[in-house]
Structures are given as C-alpha cells and as structure tokens.
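Checklist before submission:
- one chain only
- standard amino acids only
- sequence pasted in full

Submission:
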Amino acid sequence: MLRQLRFVFSLSRSHGIARRYFVVNGFDGALTLLGLNIGFYVSGETPLVVVISACLGATVALGISGISSAYISESAERERELQELEGAMVRDLSDTAHGQASRSIPVFIALVNGLAPFSIGIVIILPLWLARAGVALPLHPLEMAILVALAILFMLGIVIGNIRGSNWLWSGLRTLVIALLTILLIYLINP
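Returned file contents:
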C-alpha cells in the first residue's frame, strides 16, 4: 500500500502539493486558534467551556473546509490533467495508473489539507481540556494554549525553512513575528 502510494505520488508529482497544503492549512489553523485564544484572553474571564466550544467549533470547521475545498479543487485539476493526457495519447486512461492517481490523489491531498488545521487545533486546545479536567497547569489555560500555538507556528516556520533550504531559525522567527503582529493587531482593535 505504501509503495503504491509512493508510486502514485511520484507519477502525479503531488508530494510537494501535499506538503504545501499541510503547511499552509496548518499555519491557518494555528493562527486562527491563536487569534481565538487571544480574543478570549483580552476579553476577560470567559468560562472555559465556552472557550473550548468556540475553539473546537473553529477547529472542526477548518478541518471540514480544508477537506472539502481541497477535494473539489484537486479533483477538478486532476480530471482536467487526465483529460489532456488522454487527448494527447488518444485513448482512455481511466483504468491505468494515471487514472488511479487522478482519483486517489485528490482524496489524499484533501485529507492532508483538512487534517492539518484540525490536528493542530486539537493540540492547541489540549491545555484547555486539561484545565477543564482539573489538571494543574503552570500557567492560565489560555496562556498555555497561546504558548502552544506560538510553538507550533515556530515549528511550521522551521518546516518552511527546511523546504526552502534556508536558515531554520530565521524562518521560525519569521512565523513568530507574524503571530506577534496578529496578537498586537487583536490588542489594538479590542474595545
């Protein structure tokens, strides 16, 4: 199965697309959850159950949006590419490896696109759940969630740096600057 997946990715040259989708939607998910948690933090005492419900709702919505949007767009792109290849080869390729790739790659990319913000969101929500369950945390639950979001954004920056072949620290710091600017903007527009 893994060998077949590698072959399909190689044939369709899709591994870079899946990696980009993971980073981009993971970044969106982390920044969205960071924004939600900062918003709750600056608004004062909000019951933890409300914070968790809002963050979980956003996480689920980001996941579903990621899966559905990527599947719809990737399916259309793969179908168009297959039709162009069929036109060039003057034959039906639906029962070939190319046909299989045009059907399976959109599913895989959609899962990557949706599971990235969903799984990252769940990790960011984890301190909130732990606090709700009575686990003692070293900081306020929202502060812990914010720190987790910042750490994830930094790690995504490292991934981007590795993809680019640039300095991992600089790339991680760049994503942190984006996160800090987001926090500053939330503070500035908060009534």
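Reviewer check: Residues 20-186 form one domain.
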